[in-house]
Amino acid sequence: MSRLAVVYHSATGTTEILAKAVAAGVHSVAGAEAAVLKIEGTDIDRGRYTNGEIMRQLDTCDGILFGSPTFMGSVSAQFKAFMDASSDRYSERAWAGKLAAGFTIGSSPSGDQLNCVQTLQVFASQHGMLWAGIDLPTGWDSYGRNRMGAQSGLIALQTDAGGVHRLDRLTAMYLGERVAGLATGPTS
């Protein structure tokens, strides 16, 4: 059984919707399971992320899918605190060789969401993780997934009503399926 984690921060609930869709995609692959782990503001004390239980769960996973809303062109402060707290894992190379992927959502079509995903990608690379992007054609595939055309990870655009577009949820599920498929290996 391949165990993946979806670790995320959500300020308005939209990143959480994506995280749950990513986890549903993982669960749709035989031999894969996902733990959904939310970064809470209460887990941060004087700017330092302190939830050791989540960190221990991440240590036991085969892969980690990272999610953050795009704030001011990057990850949220809460997610950055989590990233900083992983520095001892970096020193120990505890996450090296694990699969990684990332997702974000913003409220503007040109809100620098790519920089947020690239921040997640650089973070994973610093840990020696293996990054999995979206392998769907740029733009629209036959299902309409990857509507924002990003290849590095899932970039979603908040709807005018403050929700998550149906196609972005489908793309999130696809990202979970893709990473779970890579984690479980080819089927015979």
UniProtKB/TrEMBL annotation:
InterPro entries: Flavodoxin/NO_synth (IPR008254), Flavodoxin_CS (IPR001226), Flavoprotein-like_sf (IPR029039), FMN_Rdtase-like_dom (IPR005025). Its cofactor is FMN. Transmembrane segments: none annotated. Residues 4-179 form the Flavodoxin-like domain. It holds the Pfam family FMN_red. Gene3D superfamilies: 3.40.50.360. The keyword Glycosyltransferase does not apply. Keywords: Flavoprotein, FMN. This is Flavodoxin family protein. It comes from Microbulbifer taiwanensis.
